[in-house]
Amino acid sequence: MKKTLLMIIIAVLVIIIVGIAAFSYFGKPDGSTLESREEMLAAFPKGKDWKISIEQKLGDFIISGIYSRDGMSGIAVFEPTGNGKYKLCSREWRDSDDIVISGILIDKIWYDIVWFNGAKTDYAEITYTVDGKEQEAIRHNAKGMEIFINPAPAKDYNLHVVYYDDVGNKYE
User: Fold this and answer.
1) Separation of alpha carbons 124 and 141, rounded Å
2) Within 13 Å and on the Cβ side, how many CA atoms surround 24?
3) Per residue in 115-172, pLDDT tens?
4) Cβ-contact 104, 114 below 8 angstroms
5) By CB neighbour count within 10 A (0-12 exposed, 13-18 middle, 19+ buried), where does 137 fall?
6) CB-CB contact of 37 with 52 (8 Å)
7) Which among 121, 113, 80, 109 is positioned nearest to 94, based on CA atoms?
8) Could you tell me where the beta strands, DSSP code E, fall in the chain?
9) What is the C-alpha to C-alpha distance for residues 76 and 113, in angstroms, rounded to an integer?
10) Tens digits of per-residue pLDDT, 40-88?
11) What is the 3-state secondary structure (H, E, C) of 108-136?
12) Rounded to an integer, what distance in angstroms lies between the CA atom of residue 105 and that of residue 13?
């Protein structure tokens, strides 16, 4: 009788442990949907209730423009892990009235990522300075709050970003 009771207790414990392990494995967001990627954002040390505003593909990566309920904006980059699943590989955030600049290395190419979720803007100019020489500004249409992704022009450079609204106000 004691051996039978002990075996039942052990079996119940094993079932509970396997159940907890399965729940934590299968209950974890896998990044395959927008909602799943938003769940991954919940672990950020800043911001509350992160949401994805816009997403853009760069190769197999997903670049997301994100915002929080308490006035933060950012960029999250999701890396493919196979079978349509993604993991969060980088993130950058600022106050919503600040331009967010981040970057990612994909296939040995560094990309600068720029997003602004503050005021409604008309266009943005991204200017690179390489070897002390200012390059011609890259102009982007910003009416749809797009994410701008540019390959870096050199290994060593400076980057300056200015957004303009339709009446000429600057946001730097």
Assistant:
1) 6
2) 5
3) 999 889 999 999 999 999 999 999 999 998 999 999 999 999 999 999 999 999 999 9
4) no
5) middle
6) yes
7) 113
8) 51-58, 61-67, 72-82, 85-95, 100-106, 109-115, 123-130, 133-134, 138-141, 148-151, 158-164, 170-171
9) 10
10) 998 887 788 999 999 999 999 999 999 999 999 999 999 999 999 999 9
11) CEEEEEEECCCCCCCEEEEEEEECCEECC
12) 46
Scanning the structure block, which residue is given the tokens 């701008």? 148
Which residue reads 């929080």 in tokens? 68
The first and second tokens of residue 64, run together, are: 């997301």
Terminal CA-CA length for the chain = 77
Compute the distance between CA of residue 103 and CA of residue 105 in angstroms, rounded to an integer: 7
Element of type H or E holding 38: helix 34-41
Closest CA to 105 of 83, 116, 89: 89
Nearest to 126 by CA among 109, 103, 97: 103
Amino acid at 123: Y
Beta-strand relationship, 148-151 and 170-171: unpaired
